[in-house]
Amino acid sequence: MRFGALFSKADAYDPIICEFDESEVIDCRVDIFQSVWKDAVELRRSGKLLELGKHIKCPVVAIHGDYDPHPAEGVQKPLSAILKSFRFIRLKNCGHLPWIEREAKVKFYEILNEELHHA
User: Under a CB-based contact definition with an 8 Å cutoff, are residues 79 and 62 in contact?
Assistant: First the structure.
């Protein structure tokens, strides 16, 4: 849990929630994460993950923070090439988890709400 809290802190721009609280108990299943992540890495490496994306028929919207340590181009470029209906929205002053970002949280939920109502 401490490792996850540190990652969340490092992936954030200005998080509202940034302190580790040992009274909050979260059931962490590292074995499940490692199993799923191993499969995801192989799907990415082989190109099969993007191939699967060609079967997506609904509109896709990626909401990405401008301070997200995961490069925006690594999301925007490949997905826009394979998805028929794809939009990329960049949030200002936002890291990897927009729902905990002081400056981006409200905008993130506004975008999410608008997109869900138009779906």
Answer: yes
Dihedral angle of Cα 69, 49, 90, 73, to the nearest 10 degrees: 60
Task: Choose among 7, 14, 117: nearest CA to 65.
Answer: 14
CA distances for 109 relative to 13, 54, 69, 91, angstroms: 17, 28, 21, 11
pTM of structure: 0.79
Rounded to whole angstroms, how far apart are CA atoms 82 and 17? 35
Tell me, what DSSP letter sits at residue 87? E
Enclosing domain of residue 80:
2-118
Number of domains in the chain: 1
Distance CA 6, CA 18 (A): 9
Residues 53-88 have pLDDT tens digits of 999 999 999 999 999 999 999 999 999 999 999 999
